[in-house]
Amino acid sequence: MIRAHTVEQVRAAEADLLARLPEGTLMQRAAHGLAHAVVDLLGSGAYGRRVLLLVGSGDNGGDALYAGALLARRGAQVEAWLLSDTAHERGVAALRAAGGRVRHREVTRSGDGRRAASSTCGYDVVVDGIVGIGGRPGLRPAAAAVLDALAGIPVVAVDLPSGVDADTGELEGPHVTADLTVTFGTHKPCHLADPAAAACGAIHLVDIGLDLPEALLEALQPSDVAALLPRPVPDAHKYTRGVVGVRAGSATYPGAALLSVSGAACGLAGMVRYDGDDPVLDLVRAAHPEVVGPGRVQAWVVGSGSAAGAESALRASLADAVPLVVDADALAFADLVAGRPAVLTPHAGELGQMLGEEREVIESAPLRFARRAAEQYDAVVLLKGRRSVIARPDGRARVTLSGTPWLATAGAGDVLGGLVGALLAAGLDPFDAASVGSWLHGAAGTLAAQRGPIVASDVAVALPALLGSL
Ligand SMILES: NC(=O)C1=CN([C@@H]2O[C@H](COP(=O)(O)OP(=O)(O)OC[C@H]3O[C@@H](n4cnc5c(N)ncnc54)[C@H](OP(=O)(O)O)[C@@H]3O)[C@@H](O)[C@H]2O)[C@@H](O)CC1
Ligand SMILES: Nc1ncnc2c1ncn2[C@@H]1O[C@H](COP(=O)(O)OP(=O)(O)O)[C@@H](O)[C@H]1O
Ligand SMILES: [K+]
């Protein structure tokens, strides 16, 4: 499991450790990890390579300076630009002692930053030590101008890309976009949640020995998914494995029924039922002969392509005291499910309608709005997107790290709804069902896309091979 801690949690853990260790130990650990990561990124060693450090006033700049000193001792040509009036003094001294060059704020100030950068091209890597967890979101104009002028050079961010909001993953104004982010002690929410996560590039975690409390945000890894997957016990029969019912699709959108059922029929539940108009049921049976008609279920999947029938389908499903997936057209009636075990699966546009916000507003703060909706609707919310967020009413959340932009294809969400329903029917709680389902869906999409462009039904086809590999 990847766990992300807030700045407050990191500060508390750090204070604890600082009291027990000789001064500077944590920063040395951080700087060593950072220097190694820079060498790895450079590929053919540090010797003779040109490294530019962008240094702010705090310890983030200190990490960059000490790492720069280590790189200089390994033969790199290291230059530090101090972007603030003050900088970590011992870090500056260490870099100088190792043969690095230090330029002061005057050369890099505002308009001059552009000139300084263009006159000193040829850097192999830029190390962003402007601000870390002590920074306010956004960048000062001088830093923004320097970054503009350095565009195209690989960037390694120290702890986080300067300018992003560490705790929320939100962006306010300019920020660094990194190829690699080297973080210390633990991940922070900005490393997992979009839009900031998209600015981090690859993420490398350096262990500095922090003893951390429970995290409110996490991301499943393949081994976590494998451990949570339902498996048939030796004496299983189809009913003990759980029955998932699908109320999706309509005469206008029969494809939604087929796709929802294809996700539900992934083999993780014992049986799939379809409840809908006869012509649609005939189509479903033709594609999935194992599917049976309405009856008792352990979970319902309701709403995709249901059109005008969404409300009655949802009410009928609520009459059974079983968990449910509420998708697409049924989301308009999501307040009916408050307090019931349920997973709501909106994309940003649908969540915007549920919360009275524009789609772009939701996309600018997916973690915040998924949590808000989970609390307001008293249900688990799976907000779909590049980095889907799964939030519980109590604020705990997970982010899905699997997936591919090829999943941005019509009907992919229908497959996901069916899959999450199968996991609910098999007995996973709504938070696990949503996060495991979302991870499997992303990984199946990635697997399917290895062969070329995909359509939604390819995702369901890829599920058995993916599950086998787990
Ligand atoms: N925690 C740990 O376990 C460990 C932490 N470590 C490291 O320490 C880092 C945290 O260091 P930190 O606390 O000194 O804060 P940091 O982020 O360097 O900068 C804060 C200063 O920047 C300024 N400033 C603020 N906003 C700004 C902006 N938008 N644009 C420009 N400037 C801005 C503001 O000062 P001002 O210029 O306003 O006087 C403020 O005081 C952490 O990320 C990690 O790298 C490791 O060494 C080892 C273990
Ligand atoms: N850029 C992207 N990167 C990764 N996954 C994506 C991207 N865009 C969409 N997805 C995933 O594809 C699925 C699309 O679902 P949805 O928006 O409901 O589409 P539809 O309504 O057409 O089924 C979701 O699981 C979402 O997380
Ligand atoms: K930084």
Relative strand content:
5-15%
Outline type:
elongated
**Mean pLDDT over the full residue set:** 95
Quaternary state reads single chain
**How many β-strand stretches?**
17
List cofactors, ions and other ligands. Answer: ligand NPW, adenosine-5'-diphosphate, potassium ion
CATH architecture of the largest domain: 3-Layer(aba) Sandwich
Query: Strand order across the biggest sheet?
Result: 1-9-17-16-15-14-13-12-10-11
Largest sheet: 10 strands, mixed
Number of domains: 2
Q: State the helical fraction.
A: 40-55%
Rg, alpha carbons: 26 Å
How many helices? 18
| CATH fold-level topology of the largest domain | UDP-N-acetylmuramoyl-L-alanine:D-glutamate ligase
CATH superfamily of the largest domain: Ribokinase
Cofactor: K(+); Mg(2+)
Binding site for K(+): 60, 128, 162
Binding site for AMP: 384-388, 413
Catalytic activity: (6R)-NADHX = (6S)-NADHX; (6R)-NADPHX = (6S)-NADPHX; (6S)-NADHX + ADP = AMP + phosphate + NADH + H(+); (6S)-NADPHX + ADP = AMP + phosphate + NADPH + H(+)
